[in-house]
Write a structure and sequence with these properties.
By secondary structure, the chain is of the alpha/beta class. The protein has two domains: about 150 residues, Rossmann fold (3-Layer(aba) Sandwich), CATH 3.40.50.1370; about 170 residues, Rossmann fold, CATH 3.40.50.1370. Helices cover about 40% and strands about 15% of the residues. The protein contains twelve helices and eleven strands. It has a five-stranded parallel β-sheet with strand order 9-8-7-10-11. A four-stranded parallel β-sheet has the order 2-1-5-6, with helices on both faces. A two-stranded parallel ribbon has the order 3-4. Helix 6 links the parallel strand 7 and strand 8. It starts with about 20 loop residues before the first helix and ends with a helix. It binds phosphoric acid mono(formamide)ester (CP). The site of phosphoric acid mono(formamide)ester (CP) has 9 residues, from helix 2. The site of phosphoric acid mono(formamide)ester has 9 residues, from helix 2.
């Protein structure tokens, strides 16, 4: 079997934030994902990583991420090895060591590097003690010590594979996304959720020259460094980036809308002196009217509804939107996780 030219084309690179890559590189990944999707649907074998092992460390639960990585590695001829952090000596930053319960990430990363070919990690929320940025620090610590690529399966700052799947779904509708209006909006949830998805969404949207509108009630601001990077992307790639506090105003004439919950950062360190979950939920509960309905969809330019999943039905969105295939890209986004992850693994592990 001859290998496609993308296999091994980014050998050895980590995948932690889409903004670490150029627009051209992200386009190459999505092109490879489209090739892999066609082959998957046609039943064409893609044995590009025979004998290779991916270690997956899940500090949080998952449906899409775990199963698409695991199925993806199998379809590439390799093996995905699931690790639950509490079932090994929990890989930990230096300040949190407990003898014989935890193990320094510097050691875990170097040991796993001798057994396999990449390490993938998910860590946010409780697993990162709700100290925003700590999950990202854990992943960067793995990357510092690992001799094999480190893949971010979602931390408390970025969800880069979700962003790739989202951009692939957008390109299935609009092959040239530049100039399309992409609304990344807060939507209500009673649960606590990280900033990762909206932050990666505004980054990849601006990286592709889209007119990105971020909509949220006061208090749900994204992190300053992400806002700055999104503005720089808009300048560099010819799109725009604006922020509004009104969901209805944002939806008007939109081509794509992404109503999704996240929690207000001012209730959590380093933006607060302590973790105040009750305060965050109480504040979120003021915004139950931020829900995606058919009436809001009617304001769009026959726009498409997007969500990373799992969606909180009845809170973030009503069934009539998420289940209406003329609006909804929900299952395309979920499917694309498989293809974009196979693309990146083929490129960095091949
Ligand atoms: N979107 C996403 O990452 O889904 P899971 O939490 O199910 O992995």
């Amino acid at each position: 079997m001859s290998l496609p030219s993308y296999v091994g084309s980014m050998r050895g690179r980590d995948f932690i934030n889409t903004n670490d890559f150029t627009q051209e590189e992200i386009s190459e990944i999505i092109k490879a994902a489209m090739d892999l999707r066609e082959k998957f649907r046609a039943g064409v074998p893609t044995n590009y990583l025979p004998g290779k092992t991916l270690f997956m460390l899940f500090y949080n639960r998952s449906l899409r991420t775990r199963n698409s990585f695991e199925a993806g590695m199998h379809q590439l001829g390799g093996h995905a090895h699931f690790l639950s952090p509490q079932d090994v000596y929990t890989p930990t930053l230096p300040e949190d060591m407990i003898p014989y319960q935890t193990e320094a990430i510097s050691d875990v990363a170097r040991v796993l590097s001798r057994y396999g070919n990449a390490i993938a990690i998910r860590i946010y929320g409780d697993a990162a003690k709700w100290f925003i940025g700590r999950g990202n620090r854990v992943i960067l610590e793995f990357a510092k010590w690992s001799d094999v690529p480190v893949l971010n399966m979602e931390d408390d700052i970025y969800h880069p594979f979700q962003a790739l799947a989202d951009m692939m779904a957008i390109m299935q509708v609009a092959p040239k996304p530049r100039g399309k209006k992409f609304v990344v909006s807060y939507a209500y949830s009673g649960g606590l959720k990280p900033l990762a998805v909206p932050q990666s969404c505004v980054l990849i949207g601006t990286q592709f020259g889209m007119d990105v509108v971020l909509a949220h009630p006061p208090g749900f601001e994204l992190e300053d460094h992400v806002i700055k990077a999104a503005k720089e992307n808009a300048d560099r790639y010819g799109g725009s980036f604006t922020i509004v506090n009104d969901m209805k105003e944002a939806f008007r004439d939109a081509d794509f809308v992404y109503p999704k919950a996240w929690s207000p950062k001012r209730y959590f360190p380093p933006y607060n002196s302590k973790v105040d979950k009750d305060g965050a939920v109480e504040y979120q509960n003021k915004f139950k009217n931020w829900i995606c309905t058919p009436e809001l969809m009617d304001l769009t330019n026959r726009g498409k509804y997007m969500h990373c999943g799992p969606a909180d039905r009845g809170q973030e969105v009503v069934d009539e939107v998420i289940d209406n295939s003329s609006y909804s890209l929900y299952f395309e986004q979920a499917e694309n996780r498989l293809h974009v992850q196979k693309a990146v693994m083929s490129m960095v592990m091949g």
